[in-house]
Design goal:
Shape: globular
Strand order of the largest sheet: 1-2
Mean pLDDT: 79
Number of helices: 5
Order of helices and strands: HHHHEEH
Helix content: 55-70%
Distance between the termini: 24 Å
Number of domains: 2
Strand content: 5-15%
Number of strands: 2
Radius of gyration: 17 Å
Low-confidence stretches: none
Structural class: mainly alpha
Length: about 110
């Protein structure tokens, strides 16, 4: 949903966090792995100082789109990981797995 720009289920604070993360990534010269590992701790500190105006919210939507659009940094990182997980007799897929997906991939993936 995020990749398609559908943010209906995104927490309002997620937009501000995307703004902060893009700024933080720039401070790390776009070194994704270094910035991503340290971000968890840094973001907690930054959240305390955040006050979002309407303009800031719009900037947050643009930042989230930038990170999650096809080809975006976070979209590419998430794309490196499998979306279907099978453990014993259980199959998990965030957001669900439709029958036509199963016909296409479950035989070879599961």
């Amino acid at each position: 949903m995020n990749v398609e720009g559908d943010f209906r289920y995104a927490d309002p604070g997620a937009f501000e966090e995307c703004i902060d993360f893009i700024e933080y990534l720039e401070e790390h010269d776009q070194n994704w792995e270094e910035a991503f590992v340290e971000w968890v701790h840094v973001s907690e500190i930054w959240k305390e100082d955040r006050r979002a105006s309407q303009r800031q919210k719009q900037k947050g939507i643009a930042a989230r789109s930038s990170l999650l659009n096809p080809g975006g940094l976070l979209s590419c990182e998430l794309g490196r990981h499998g979306v279907i997980l099978k453990v014993d007799d259980w199959v998990f897929c965030h957001g669900g797995l439709l029958p036509h997906h199963g016909k296409a991939c479950c035989k070879r993936c599961l």
